[in-house]
Amino acid sequence: MTTSPETAPAPAGIPDLPDPRSARCPFDPSPQMRGLAAFGPVFRVRNWDGKTPWVVTSHAEQKALLSDNRLSVDFAAPGFPSPIARHGGGEGESEVHGEAAQDGDNHGVTDLSFVGMDDPEHARLRRMVSGVFTIKRVEAMRPAVQELVDGFIDRLLDGPKPVDLVQAFSLPIPSLVISELLGVPYGDHEFFQINSKTLVSLTATPAERHSAHTALVDYLDQLVGERLGNPGEDVLSRLAAQVRAGELTRREVAVMGVLLLLGGHETTANMITLGILLLLQHPRQAARVRDAEDPEVVVGAVEELLRFLTIAHLGRRRTALEDIEIAGQTIRKGEGVIMLGELANRDPSVFPDPDRLDITRDARQHQAFGAGTHHCIGQPLARMELQVIYPALLRRIPTLRLATELDQVPFKFDAVIYGAHELHVTW
Amino acid sequence: MKITVDEVKCCGAGQCVLIAPEVFDQRDEDGIVILLDAAPAAEQHAAVREAASVCPAAAIHLGEEA
Questions:
Q1: Are A102 and A349 in contact (CB under 8 A)?
Q2: Which of A118, A126, A134, A365 to mutate against chain B (most B CBs within 10 Å)?
Q3: Which parts of the chain span the membrane according to its record (chain B) (predicted)?
Q4: Domain for residue A416, yes or no?
Q5: How many separate domains does chain B show?
Q6: pLDDT tens digits for A344-361?
Protein backbone atom coordinates (compact mmCIF):
# COMPACT_ATOMS: atom_id res chain seq x y z
CA MET A 1 0.00 0.00 0.00
CA THR A 2 1.50 3.28 -1.03
CA THR A 3 -1.21 5.76 -0.19
CA SER A 4 -4.58 6.11 1.53
CA PRO A 5 -7.78 7.88 0.50
CA GLU A 6 -7.11 10.91 2.61
CA THR A 7 -3.62 11.56 1.28
CA ALA A 8 -4.86 13.86 -1.45
CA PRO A 9 -2.22 16.26 -2.72
CA ALA A 10 -2.14 19.42 -0.65
CA PRO A 11 -2.58 22.75 -2.41
CA ALA A 12 0.61 24.04 -3.94
CA GLY A 13 2.71 26.29 -1.77
CA ILE A 14 2.16 24.42 1.46
CA PRO A 15 5.51 23.53 2.99
CA ASP A 16 6.34 19.94 3.90
CA LEU A 17 6.89 18.41 7.29
CA PRO A 18 9.15 16.95 8.48
CA ASP A 19 11.45 19.73 7.50
CA PRO A 20 14.99 18.82 8.51
CA ARG A 21 17.55 21.12 10.04
CA SER A 22 20.27 22.36 7.72
CA ALA A 23 23.49 20.36 7.97
CA ARG A 24 25.36 23.66 7.65
CA CYS A 25 23.63 25.06 10.76
CA PRO A 26 23.19 21.92 12.87
CA PHE A 27 22.31 23.84 16.03
CA ASP A 28 19.55 25.90 14.44
CA PRO A 29 15.93 25.10 13.57
CA SER A 30 14.97 24.36 9.99
CA PRO A 31 15.54 27.49 7.91
CA GLN A 32 12.35 26.98 5.88
CA MET A 33 10.01 26.99 8.89
CA ARG A 34 11.77 30.00 10.33
CA GLY A 35 11.37 31.90 7.11
CA LEU A 36 7.66 31.15 7.02
CA ALA A 37 7.23 32.09 10.67
CA ALA A 38 8.12 35.64 9.70
CA PHE A 39 4.80 35.90 7.81
CA GLY A 40 2.67 34.84 10.76
CA PRO A 41 2.83 32.44 13.69
CA VAL A 42 0.09 30.01 12.57
CA PHE A 43 0.09 28.41 9.11
CA ARG A 44 -0.64 25.13 7.35
CA VAL A 45 1.94 22.52 6.48
CA ARG A 46 1.71 19.25 4.61
CA ASN A 47 2.52 16.36 6.90
CA TRP A 48 4.29 13.31 5.45
CA ASP A 49 0.90 11.51 5.29
CA GLY A 50 -0.67 14.19 3.09
CA LYS A 51 -2.74 15.80 5.83
CA THR A 52 -2.44 19.56 6.23
CA PRO A 53 -2.28 20.34 9.93
CA TRP A 54 -1.42 23.74 11.38
CA VAL A 55 1.99 24.71 12.62
CA VAL A 56 2.38 27.23 15.45
CA THR A 57 5.73 28.98 15.68
CA SER A 58 5.44 31.75 18.29
CA HIS A 59 6.15 31.42 22.00
CA ALA A 60 2.96 32.98 23.37
CA GLU A 61 0.58 31.07 21.09
CA GLN A 62 2.36 27.77 21.76
CA LYS A 63 2.20 28.25 25.50
CA ALA A 64 -1.49 29.15 25.29
CA LEU A 65 -2.36 26.16 23.12
CA LEU A 66 -0.30 23.70 25.15
CA SER A 67 -2.33 24.74 28.20
CA ASP A 68 -5.66 24.63 26.32
CA ASN A 69 -7.89 21.62 27.01
CA ARG A 70 -9.63 22.11 23.65
CA LEU A 71 -6.62 20.29 22.19
CA SER A 72 -6.14 16.54 22.54
CA VAL A 73 -2.88 14.57 22.60
CA ASP A 74 -4.65 11.30 21.78
CA PHE A 75 -2.58 9.62 19.04
CA ALA A 76 -5.71 7.80 17.86
CA ALA A 77 -7.74 10.95 17.10
CA PRO A 78 -8.63 11.04 13.38
CA GLY A 79 -6.83 14.29 12.64
CA PHE A 80 -3.77 13.56 14.74
CA PRO A 81 -0.67 14.67 12.80
CA SER A 82 1.57 11.65 13.29
CA PRO A 83 5.28 12.42 13.42
CA ILE A 84 6.73 9.00 12.69
CA ALA A 85 4.71 6.50 10.74
CA ARG A 86 6.80 6.79 7.61
CA HIS A 87 8.81 3.87 6.32
CA GLY A 88 12.53 4.28 6.10
CA GLY A 89 12.22 3.29 2.46
CA GLY A 90 13.70 4.68 -0.70
CA GLU A 91 14.68 8.26 -1.14
CA GLY A 92 11.78 10.40 -2.24
CA GLU A 93 9.17 7.69 -1.86
CA SER A 94 6.13 8.52 0.15
CA GLU A 95 5.33 5.00 1.14
CA VAL A 96 2.85 5.01 3.93
CA HIS A 97 2.40 2.28 6.46
CA GLY A 98 -1.03 0.88 5.68
CA GLU A 99 -2.33 0.58 9.21
CA ALA A 100 -0.87 3.85 10.27
CA ALA A 101 -2.57 5.78 7.52
CA GLN A 102 -6.03 4.84 8.74
CA ASP A 103 -7.87 6.87 11.27
CA GLY A 104 -8.78 5.50 14.64
CA ASP A 105 -5.57 3.72 15.50
CA ASN A 106 -2.31 4.98 16.90
CA HIS A 107 -1.03 6.36 13.60
CA GLY A 108 2.09 4.29 14.03
CA VAL A 109 2.92 5.96 17.31
CA THR A 110 3.75 3.52 20.06
CA ASP A 111 1.84 3.49 23.31
CA LEU A 112 3.64 5.92 25.62
CA SER A 113 1.28 5.76 28.56
CA PHE A 114 -0.05 9.13 29.79
CA VAL A 115 1.92 11.03 27.15
CA GLY A 116 -0.85 10.01 24.75
CA MET A 117 -3.79 10.58 27.12
CA ASP A 118 -5.91 13.60 27.93
CA ASP A 119 -6.94 14.72 31.38
CA PRO A 120 -8.41 13.50 33.64
CA GLU A 121 -6.98 10.04 32.85
CA HIS A 122 -3.62 11.59 32.02
CA ALA A 123 -3.46 13.32 35.40
CA ARG A 124 -4.57 10.19 37.23
CA LEU A 125 -1.71 8.12 35.83
CA ARG A 126 0.90 10.87 35.81
CA ARG A 127 0.27 11.78 39.43
CA MET A 128 0.98 8.22 40.52
CA VAL A 129 4.60 8.80 39.60
CA SER A 130 5.11 12.58 39.57
CA GLY A 131 6.00 12.60 43.28
CA VAL A 132 9.29 10.93 42.38
CA PHE A 133 10.43 14.12 40.63
CA THR A 134 9.77 16.80 43.26
CA ILE A 135 12.52 19.37 43.67
CA LYS A 136 13.36 17.98 47.14
CA ARG A 137 13.71 14.39 45.98
CA VAL A 138 15.78 15.33 42.96
CA GLU A 139 18.05 17.56 45.07
CA ALA A 140 18.58 14.64 47.44
CA MET A 141 19.96 12.66 44.49
CA ARG A 142 22.49 15.34 43.51
CA PRO A 143 25.47 14.11 45.61
CA ALA A 144 25.10 10.56 44.26
CA VAL A 145 24.94 11.87 40.69
CA GLN A 146 28.03 14.02 41.31
CA GLU A 147 29.89 10.96 42.55
CA LEU A 148 28.76 8.91 39.57
CA VAL A 149 29.87 11.63 37.14
CA ASP A 150 33.26 11.97 38.85
CA GLY A 151 33.77 8.22 38.48
CA PHE A 152 33.03 8.35 34.78
CA ILE A 153 35.46 11.25 34.32
CA ASP A 154 38.15 9.29 36.22
CA ARG A 155 37.69 6.44 33.76
CA LEU A 156 37.77 8.81 30.77
CA LEU A 157 41.08 10.22 32.00
CA ASP A 158 42.51 6.73 32.55
CA GLY A 159 41.27 5.42 29.20
CA PRO A 160 42.33 5.78 25.58
CA LYS A 161 41.79 8.95 23.58
CA PRO A 162 40.24 10.11 21.39
CA VAL A 163 37.07 8.61 22.81
CA ASP A 164 33.41 8.61 21.79
CA LEU A 165 31.82 10.77 24.46
CA VAL A 166 28.37 9.34 23.70
CA GLN A 167 29.26 5.75 24.60
CA ALA A 168 31.78 6.53 27.34
CA PHE A 169 29.89 9.30 29.13
CA SER A 170 26.67 10.83 27.79
CA LEU A 171 24.66 7.63 27.46
CA PRO A 172 25.75 5.59 30.48
CA ILE A 173 25.32 8.33 33.11
CA PRO A 174 21.61 9.11 32.64
CA SER A 175 20.97 5.41 31.92
CA LEU A 176 22.44 4.50 35.29
CA VAL A 177 20.53 7.25 37.08
CA ILE A 178 17.15 6.31 35.67
CA SER A 179 17.81 2.55 36.00
CA GLU A 180 18.53 2.91 39.68
CA LEU A 181 15.54 5.17 40.24
CA LEU A 182 13.17 2.82 38.43
CA GLY A 183 14.68 -0.42 39.66
CA VAL A 184 15.84 -1.65 36.25
CA PRO A 185 19.09 -3.67 36.37
CA TYR A 186 21.75 -1.55 34.65
CA GLY A 187 23.38 -4.77 33.46
CA ASP A 188 20.62 -4.86 30.84
CA HIS A 189 21.58 -1.43 29.47
CA GLU A 190 22.57 -2.61 25.99
CA PHE A 191 19.15 -4.18 25.56
CA PHE A 192 17.17 -1.14 26.64
CA GLN A 193 19.44 1.41 24.96
CA ILE A 194 19.29 -0.31 21.57
CA ASN A 195 15.51 -0.74 21.69
CA SER A 196 15.02 2.83 22.91
CA LYS A 197 17.10 4.11 20.03
CA THR A 198 14.89 2.21 17.59
CA LEU A 199 11.77 3.69 19.20
CA VAL A 200 12.93 7.26 18.56
CA SER A 201 14.35 6.60 15.11
CA LEU A 202 12.59 8.12 12.13
CA THR A 203 14.20 5.63 9.77
CA ALA A 204 13.10 2.48 11.60
CA THR A 205 10.11 0.75 10.02
CA PRO A 206 6.83 0.60 11.95
CA ALA A 207 7.47 -3.14 12.36
CA GLU A 208 10.89 -2.46 13.87
CA ARG A 209 9.47 0.14 16.25
CA HIS A 210 6.65 -2.18 17.23
CA SER A 211 9.06 -4.99 17.92
CA ALA A 212 11.32 -2.71 20.02
CA HIS A 213 8.34 -1.46 22.00
CA THR A 214 7.04 -4.99 22.61
CA ALA A 215 10.46 -6.14 23.78
CA LEU A 216 10.70 -3.24 26.24
CA VAL A 217 7.15 -3.65 27.55
CA ASP A 218 7.67 -7.41 28.07
CA TYR A 219 10.94 -6.70 29.86
CA LEU A 220 9.36 -4.12 32.17
CA ASP A 221 6.37 -6.40 32.72
CA GLN A 222 8.68 -9.08 34.03
CA LEU A 223 10.33 -6.60 36.41
CA VAL A 224 6.92 -5.41 37.63
CA GLY A 225 5.99 -9.05 38.27
CA GLU A 226 9.05 -9.43 40.48
CA ARG A 227 8.13 -6.27 42.44
CA LEU A 228 4.57 -7.44 43.05
CA GLY A 229 5.76 -10.11 45.43
CA ASN A 230 8.99 -8.55 46.57
CA PRO A 231 8.76 -4.74 46.63
CA GLY A 232 11.75 -2.47 47.18
CA GLU A 233 12.24 1.29 47.33
CA ASP A 234 12.28 1.88 43.58
CA VAL A 235 9.67 3.46 41.29
CA LEU A 236 8.57 0.13 39.82
CA SER A 237 7.78 -1.05 43.35
CA ARG A 238 5.82 2.14 43.97
CA LEU A 239 3.80 1.48 40.82
CA ALA A 240 3.45 -2.24 41.56
CA ALA A 241 1.67 -1.17 44.77
CA GLN A 242 -0.93 0.54 42.54
CA VAL A 243 -1.43 -2.78 40.75
CA ARG A 244 -2.05 -4.51 44.06
CA ALA A 245 -4.47 -1.72 44.99
CA GLY A 246 -6.38 -2.26 41.75
CA GLU A 247 -5.60 1.26 40.45
CA LEU A 248 -3.40 0.17 37.54
CA THR A 249 -2.99 -2.94 35.45
CA ARG A 250 0.38 -4.62 35.22
CA ARG A 251 0.61 -3.66 31.56
CA GLU A 252 -0.14 0.00 32.35
CA VAL A 253 2.79 -0.02 34.76
CA ALA A 254 5.05 -1.73 32.24
CA VAL A 255 4.21 0.85 29.56
CA MET A 256 4.73 3.67 32.04
CA GLY A 257 8.06 2.09 32.92
CA VAL A 258 9.09 2.11 29.26
CA LEU A 259 8.19 5.79 29.02
CA LEU A 260 10.25 6.70 32.09
CA LEU A 261 13.19 4.55 31.04
CA LEU A 262 13.20 5.96 27.51
CA GLY A 263 12.59 9.55 28.58
CA GLY A 264 15.14 9.24 31.35
CA HIS A 265 18.17 8.33 29.29
CA GLU A 266 17.78 9.03 25.57
CA THR A 267 16.84 12.69 25.94
CA THR A 268 19.32 13.57 28.68
CA ALA A 269 22.12 11.75 26.85
CA ASN A 270 21.55 13.88 23.76
CA MET A 271 21.50 17.09 25.81
CA ILE A 272 24.81 16.12 27.42
CA THR A 273 26.45 15.43 24.06
CA LEU A 274 25.10 18.46 22.21
CA GLY A 275 25.55 20.80 25.19
CA ILE A 276 29.23 19.90 25.49
CA LEU A 277 29.68 20.18 21.73
CA LEU A 278 28.03 23.61 21.69
CA LEU A 279 30.11 24.83 24.63
CA LEU A 280 33.27 23.64 22.84
CA GLN A 281 32.25 25.90 19.95
CA HIS A 282 31.98 28.83 22.41
CA PRO A 283 35.18 28.60 24.47
CA ARG A 284 34.66 31.83 26.41
CA GLN A 285 31.23 30.73 27.57
CA ALA A 286 32.59 27.25 28.32
CA ALA A 287 35.25 28.92 30.49
CA ARG A 288 32.54 30.77 32.38
CA VAL A 289 30.73 27.52 33.12
CA ARG A 290 34.03 25.87 34.09
CA ASP A 291 35.18 28.66 36.43
CA ALA A 292 31.81 29.58 37.93
CA GLU A 293 31.83 29.80 41.72
CA ASP A 294 28.18 30.83 41.84
CA PRO A 295 25.99 27.78 41.06
CA GLU A 296 23.41 30.14 39.54
CA VAL A 297 25.80 30.71 36.61
CA VAL A 298 25.61 27.00 35.80
CA VAL A 299 21.84 26.93 36.34
CA GLY A 300 21.46 29.78 33.86
CA ALA A 301 23.80 28.14 31.36
CA VAL A 302 21.79 24.92 31.44
CA GLU A 303 18.57 26.84 30.74
CA GLU A 304 20.19 28.62 27.80
CA LEU A 305 21.53 25.35 26.37
CA LEU A 306 18.08 23.78 26.72
CA ARG A 307 16.55 26.77 24.93
CA PHE A 308 19.11 26.94 22.19
CA LEU A 309 19.19 23.21 21.38
CA THR A 310 15.52 22.21 21.93
CA ILE A 311 16.27 18.56 21.17
CA ALA A 312 12.57 17.53 21.13
CA HIS A 313 12.39 18.96 17.64
CA LEU A 314 9.51 17.21 15.89
CA GLY A 315 6.82 19.43 17.34
CA ARG A 316 4.29 18.86 20.09
CA ARG A 317 1.35 17.38 18.28
CA ARG A 318 -2.31 17.80 19.08
CA THR A 319 -5.79 17.58 17.54
CA ALA A 320 -8.39 20.34 17.97
CA LEU A 321 -11.50 19.14 19.80
CA GLU A 322 -13.36 22.38 18.93
CA ASP A 323 -12.87 25.30 16.56
CA ILE A 324 -10.11 27.49 17.95
CA GLU A 325 -9.35 31.09 16.96
CA ILE A 326 -5.68 31.91 17.29
CA ALA A 327 -3.51 34.66 15.82
CA GLY A 328 -6.10 35.49 13.17
CA GLN A 329 -6.57 31.90 11.99
CA THR A 330 -9.33 29.42 12.68
CA ILE A 331 -8.25 25.91 13.51
CA ARG A 332 -11.25 23.71 12.82
CA LYS A 333 -12.41 20.91 15.05
CA GLY A 334 -10.58 17.72 14.08
CA GLU A 335 -7.58 19.42 12.52
CA GLY A 336 -4.03 18.71 13.64
CA VAL A 337 -1.85 21.30 15.36
CA ILE A 338 1.92 21.10 15.68
CA MET A 339 3.77 23.36 18.13
CA LEU A 340 7.39 23.75 17.03
CA GLY A 341 9.21 24.27 20.32
CA GLU A 342 12.53 24.99 18.62
CA LEU A 343 10.90 28.06 17.03
CA ALA A 344 9.17 29.19 20.25
CA ASN A 345 12.61 29.08 21.80
CA ARG A 346 13.99 31.38 19.10
CA ASP A 347 11.08 33.84 19.30
CA PRO A 348 12.74 37.28 19.33
CA SER A 349 9.87 38.84 21.28
CA VAL A 350 10.81 36.65 24.25
CA PHE A 351 14.53 36.03 23.62
CA PRO A 352 16.24 39.09 22.10
CA ASP A 353 18.85 38.17 19.49
CA PRO A 354 17.64 34.56 19.77
CA ASP A 355 20.28 32.95 17.57
CA ARG A 356 23.06 34.07 19.86
CA LEU A 357 24.03 31.57 22.54
CA ASP A 358 24.31 33.64 25.71
CA ILE A 359 24.56 31.70 28.95
CA THR A 360 24.03 34.92 30.92
CA ARG A 361 20.57 35.62 29.50
CA ASP A 362 17.38 34.77 31.39
CA ALA A 363 16.22 31.78 29.32
CA ARG A 364 13.79 30.31 31.86
CA GLN A 365 10.76 30.99 29.66
CA HIS A 366 11.97 28.37 27.18
CA GLN A 367 9.67 25.52 26.19
CA ALA A 368 12.31 22.84 25.73
CA PHE A 369 10.25 20.69 28.13
CA GLY A 370 6.93 21.76 26.63
CA ALA A 371 4.21 23.51 28.61
CA GLY A 372 0.83 22.77 30.13
CA THR A 373 -0.15 19.57 31.89
CA HIS A 374 2.09 17.47 29.62
CA HIS A 375 5.23 19.43 30.58
CA CYS A 376 8.10 16.92 30.83
CA ILE A 377 7.69 14.96 34.07
CA GLY A 378 11.40 14.21 34.40
CA GLN A 379 12.71 17.74 33.82
CA PRO A 380 13.88 18.40 37.41
CA LEU A 381 16.08 15.29 37.15
CA ALA A 382 17.36 16.21 33.68
CA ARG A 383 18.18 19.74 34.83
CA MET A 384 20.02 18.50 37.90
CA GLU A 385 22.05 16.00 35.88
CA LEU A 386 23.05 18.66 33.36
CA GLN A 387 23.94 21.13 36.14
CA VAL A 388 26.32 18.53 37.57
CA ILE A 389 27.74 17.22 34.30
CA TYR A 390 28.72 20.29 32.23
CA PRO A 391 30.90 22.01 34.86
CA ALA A 392 32.36 18.71 36.12
CA LEU A 393 33.55 17.64 32.67
CA LEU A 394 34.91 21.09 31.79
CA ARG A 395 36.72 21.44 35.15
CA ARG A 396 38.27 18.00 35.23
CA ILE A 397 39.28 18.05 31.54
CA PRO A 398 39.90 21.74 30.80
CA THR A 399 41.64 20.98 27.50
CA LEU A 400 38.70 18.92 26.21
CA ARG A 401 38.26 19.39 22.46
CA LEU A 402 36.62 17.85 19.45
CA ALA A 403 38.79 15.17 17.82
CA THR A 404 37.15 15.68 14.43
CA GLU A 405 35.90 18.62 12.41
CA LEU A 406 32.42 19.84 13.31
CA ASP A 407 31.12 18.85 9.87
CA GLN A 408 32.14 15.24 10.56
CA VAL A 409 29.86 14.96 13.59
CA PRO A 410 26.97 12.58 12.76
CA PHE A 411 24.00 14.62 13.93
CA LYS A 412 20.67 12.86 14.51
CA PHE A 413 18.71 14.52 11.74
CA ASP A 414 16.82 11.21 11.59
CA ALA A 415 15.56 10.95 15.17
CA VAL A 416 12.56 12.13 17.16
CA ILE A 417 15.03 13.47 19.71
CA TYR A 418 17.89 15.48 18.21
CA GLY A 419 21.46 14.75 19.17
CA ALA A 420 24.63 13.19 17.82
CA HIS A 421 25.18 9.49 17.22
CA GLU A 422 28.85 9.85 18.18
CA LEU A 423 31.10 12.60 19.44
CA HIS A 424 34.81 11.91 19.31
CA VAL A 425 36.73 14.07 21.75
CA THR A 426 40.28 14.28 23.02
CA TRP A 427 42.34 16.47 25.39
CA MET B 1 -1.14 40.73 46.26
CA LYS B 2 -3.53 37.77 46.43
CA ILE B 3 -2.28 34.47 45.01
CA THR B 4 -4.42 31.57 43.85
CA VAL B 5 -3.12 28.32 42.40
CA ASP B 6 -4.86 25.90 40.07
CA GLU B 7 -4.11 22.39 41.28
CA VAL B 8 -5.80 20.84 38.25
CA LYS B 9 -3.59 22.69 35.76
CA CYS B 10 -0.44 22.32 37.88
CA CYS B 11 2.11 19.97 36.27
CA GLY B 12 4.32 19.69 39.36
CA ALA B 13 7.37 21.20 37.68
CA GLY B 14 8.48 22.84 40.93
CA GLN B 15 9.77 26.03 39.30
CA CYS B 16 7.78 28.10 41.83
CA VAL B 17 9.42 26.22 44.71
CA LEU B 18 12.86 27.07 43.36
CA ILE B 19 12.02 30.75 42.82
CA ALA B 20 9.85 31.53 45.86
CA PRO B 21 10.30 28.74 48.43
CA GLU B 22 8.66 30.78 51.20
CA VAL B 23 5.45 31.02 49.22
CA PHE B 24 5.23 27.71 47.34
CA ASP B 25 5.93 24.08 48.14
CA GLN B 26 5.10 20.72 46.54
CA ARG B 27 3.01 17.83 47.86
CA ASP B 28 5.24 14.87 48.62
CA GLU B 29 2.96 12.34 47.01
CA ASP B 30 2.58 13.90 43.55
CA GLY B 31 4.55 17.15 43.39
CA ILE B 32 1.46 19.33 42.99
CA VAL B 33 1.78 22.90 44.28
CA ILE B 34 1.06 23.84 47.88
CA LEU B 35 0.41 27.52 48.47
CA LEU B 36 2.12 28.38 51.76
CA ASP B 37 1.21 32.05 51.81
CA ALA B 38 -1.65 33.44 49.71
CA ALA B 39 -0.91 37.05 50.64
CA PRO B 40 2.86 37.31 51.00
CA ALA B 41 4.75 40.35 52.24
CA ALA B 42 5.92 42.95 49.74
CA GLU B 43 9.50 41.66 49.62
CA GLN B 44 8.19 38.40 48.13
CA HIS B 45 6.21 40.03 45.34
CA ALA B 46 8.96 40.14 42.74
CA ALA B 47 9.78 36.45 43.22
CA VAL B 48 6.10 35.51 43.12
CA ARG B 49 5.58 37.41 39.85
CA GLU B 50 8.59 35.64 38.41
CA ALA B 51 7.27 32.25 39.56
CA ALA B 52 3.88 32.97 37.98
CA SER B 53 5.52 34.01 34.73
CA VAL B 54 7.86 31.01 34.54
CA CYS B 55 5.23 28.44 35.59
CA PRO B 56 5.03 26.10 32.58
CA ALA B 57 1.39 25.29 33.25
CA ALA B 58 0.28 28.89 33.90
CA ALA B 59 -1.23 27.60 37.15
CA ILE B 60 -0.40 30.61 39.37
CA HIS B 61 -2.78 33.56 39.29
CA LEU B 62 -2.12 36.92 40.89
CA GLY B 63 -4.70 39.44 42.06
CA GLU B 64 -3.80 42.83 43.43
CA GLU B 65 -6.25 43.20 46.32
CA ALA B 66 -4.88 42.70 49.81
A1: no
A2: A134
A3: none
A4: yes
A5: 1
A6: 999 999 999 999 999 999
